[in-house]
Amino acid sequence: MAMPVLALGGIYYRMVLAQMEGRALDIRDVELEGAGHYLAEERPDEIVRELVKFFA
């Protein structure tokens, strides 16, 4: 069983995906469109929603 990895990205979404490539078998990725570098400050509600979904 592969350990799932949650990859969150805003303006650097494509770079996050590129960095994850080949590092895990179960990568769950989410793009927060329009978010910049500080995802937790800029989109706290969306981050919480994605974390709850991921850990559920």
The number of distinct β-strands equals 2
Shape: flat
Helices and strands, in N-to-C order?
A: EHEHH
CA radius of gyration: 11 Å
Q: Record the strand order, biggest sheet.
A: 1-2
Portion in beta strands: 15-25%
Counting DSSP H or I runs of 4 or more residues, the number of helices is: 3
Main beta sheet, described? Answer: 2 strands, parallel
Share in helix: 40-55%
Termini gap: 17 Å
What can be said about this structure in brief?
This protein is α+β, with helices and mostly antiparallel strands and 56 residues long. It has 3 helices and 2 strands, in the order βαβαα.
What does this structure look like?
The structure is a single chain. With about 55 residues, the protein is an alpha+beta fold. The chain is about 45% helix and about 20% strand. The protein has helices spanning about 15-20, 40, 45-55; strands at about 5-10, 25-30. The protein has a two-stranded parallel ribbon with strand order 1-2. Helix 1 (about 15-20) links the parallel strand 1 (about 5-10) and strand 2. It is flat, with a radius of gyration of 11 Å. The relative contact order is 0.25. The mean pLDDT is about 95.
Features of the shown structure:
two-stranded parallel ribbon, single chain, alpha+beta, 3 helices, 56 residues
Lay out the secondary structure.
Elements: E1 4-9, H1 13-20, E2 26-31, H2 39-42, H3 44-55
Parallel strand pairs: 1-2
